[in-house]
Amino acid sequence: MTDDAKSTDPLLADRLERIAAALERLAPALPPAPDFSQAEGFVWQPDPGNFVAVAHINRVPLGLLKGIDHAAGQLLDNTMRFAKGLPANNALLWGARGMGKSSLVKAIHGHVAKETAQAGKGGLKLVEIHREDIATLPRCLAAMRAVTHRFIVFCDDLSFDRDDTSYKSLKAVLEGGIEGRPANVIFYATSNRRHLMPRDMMENERSTAINPSEAVEEKVSLSDRFGLWLGFHNGTQDQFLDMVQGYVAYHGLHIGAEELRRDALEWSITRGGRSGRVAWQYIQDLAGRLGQTLRSE
Question: 212 CB contacts (<8 Å, ≥6 apart)?
Answer without folding.
Answer: 205, 206
